[in-house]
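[job 0412] stage=fold_complex status=start
inputs:
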Amino acid sequence: MARATLEVPSLLREFIAGAPGTVPTFEADSLADVMSAMRRAFPKLAPHVWDETGALRKHVHVYVGEWNVRWPDVPDDAWHDGVRVRVTMAVSGG
Amino acid sequence: MAKRIVAGTDRGVFTYDRDVNGGWQFGKHALPGWRVDSVVQLPGGRMVAGAGHFAYGTTIRHSDDDGATWTQAGRTPSFEDGPMPVLPDGTTRKLDAIWTIVPGGPANPNALYAGTDLAALFRSDDGGETWDEVMGLQHHPTRPYWAPGGGGMCLHTILPHPTDPNQLRVAMSAIGFMETTDGGTTWHTRHEGIREIETGQPVSEVARCVHGVAAHPDDPDRLFMQFHFGVFRSDDGGKAWRTIENGLPSTFGFPIVVTRSGAVLIIPLLADLQRYFVDGRLRVYRSTDGGESWGAVTAGLPQANYYGGVLRGAMRTDLETGEVVFGTNHGEMFHSADEGQTWTQLPGRLTRIMYVSLA
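[job 0412] stage=fold_complex status=done
writing structure:
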């Protein structure tokens, strides 16, 4: 079990808000458990990050440390205590 | 007089508030960054909005402080958590937008309805905090043959019956007009007299691209429909329809409203491809004889080189005051204090206006 901090874009911050001044955190057993652990910890964030199939929304990325969870071969040790998890919106031109 | 105009735009909620002189002043801008496809302010003051984002999906929010702060519904409309996340053919139902939010009216005073894309009806009985799908609509035998219109496959119009709590009518694009008389368990299409369009589906019963429907305030069975090329009237609750197009420059448009005295208002657009005001003139077409004849209203409206449009949810009337308001897809807001006979443009220019309501 490890505990990570979670950062999200400003538009989504209200959905993970805790006590003022605190940094949102969540726990997961392993890298494979990160997505489901996030959903459980932040249920109001869930519809904005995952679609109805449970997949990450098309224009949303989740990084565990420097690793995008969509990438192949993310090493298991990317998930460790204190790691920073970031939700970002894909930059898709414009 | 209404005290507030609430607008949903592609860049959040904007409000106009009545000032001490009876005019309108710019109020708030809320939920910036969100596309607000629908927003209403309930009689108790709560605002309820359907807010979406191309990357982050769509949920319902509510505000109890005039839009200063918003809370996401505890159980927002969702197919994933409902009884039918996947259609019988294996397709996952995805929720793209909350197209309309409508109070239940005097027969269902605690109810709120929401119409969505993908076409579905949701109901809340706790002021918008929790929502459940009205599943009977999805069990209609034509469901496998529903097809989208240009704006998606949306349930955009909800007409609660003023006295019968079990009767409800809805319109969907490009599907048609349906009615339930048993509280939503079973539904029936109401299309006799409405021409079919080519949706490519094999079942013509649901090949009707209804753009909007409004009921007469004194007779809920007298209905007026803006169709995809066509304007229709029914005097029997939608069982039979006939055209009412005499004097219109185009039969294409989106919003349709009926004022407290029964005047019918539409805004014809050049179509199908152009979808802007005919001849570059913003004219509201108004009928005071139930659609038998139409007259152009131009007072207070731009009459030269004006190539915008008015979206489906962006016109509303207040049945108590007779006021009417509409917003354009270029962000201009127009208000009428006399049931649409004369208009005043409100100050400022918003972004693309998708939805308006009066409070």
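[job 0412] summary: Chain A touches chain B at residues 11-12, 14-15, 44, 47-49, 51-54, 57-60, 89-90 (CB under 8 Å).
[job 0412] exit 0
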